[in-house]
Amino acid sequence: MSTTHTDPLHNPQAAGVIYVQGVPTQQTRLTLGGAISVSPMAIGTWSWGDAKWGYKPEMFGDIAATWDALQDETL
Predict the structure, then answer these.
(1) In a domain, 49, yes or no
(2) Is the Cβ–Cβ distance between 39 and 74 less than 8 Å?
(3) Under a CB-based contact definition with an 8 Å cutoff, are residues 72 and 66 in contact?
(4) Cβ neighbours of 31 (radius 10 Å)
(5) Rounded CA gap, 30 and 24, in Å?
(6) Is 71 inside any structural domain?
(7) Considering its fold, how many domains does the chain have in total?
(8) Residue 71: how many CA atoms within 13 Å on its side-chain side?
(9) Is the pTM value of this prediction over 0.85?
(10) Cα separation of 51 and 35, whole Å?
(11) Residue 54 is part of which domain span?
(12) Which superkingdom does the taxonomy of this entry point to (predicted)?
């Protein structure tokens, strides 16, 4: 079901969506619960290093380097 509503109160598909005014940049931060400031972009890392997803111990160096690069960019 598609909708043209941008107001989350009138769009059941928008539950949990946080709206950003304009185009987010690297400096854009969202305040959650009035206490924590986060980037509007996130990286899903829950599977990193998990053998179920094909990761091998020899990949750890690349995983760590990727994590470091993401932190350097404040993602």
Answers:
(1) yes
(2) yes
(3) no
(4) 10
(5) 10
(6) yes
(7) 1
(8) 7
(9) no
(10) 36
(11) 43-75
(12) Eukaryota
Q: Which tokens hold the place of 7?
A: 């107001």
Is residue 67 situated within a structural domain? Answer: yes
Residue 55 to residue 73: CA distance in whole angstroms: 24
CB-based burial, 51-64: b 16+ in 10 Å, e otherwise: eeeeeeeeeeeeee
Residue 55 lies in a domain: yes
Which residue type sits at 55? Y
The dihedral of CA 72, 42, 54, 56: what is its sign? positive
Number of Cβ atoms within 10 Å of the Cβ of 14: 15
Cα–Cα dist 44/70, whole Å: 12
Amino acid at 66: T
The band of 69, judged by pLDDT with boundaries at 50, 70 and 90, is: very high
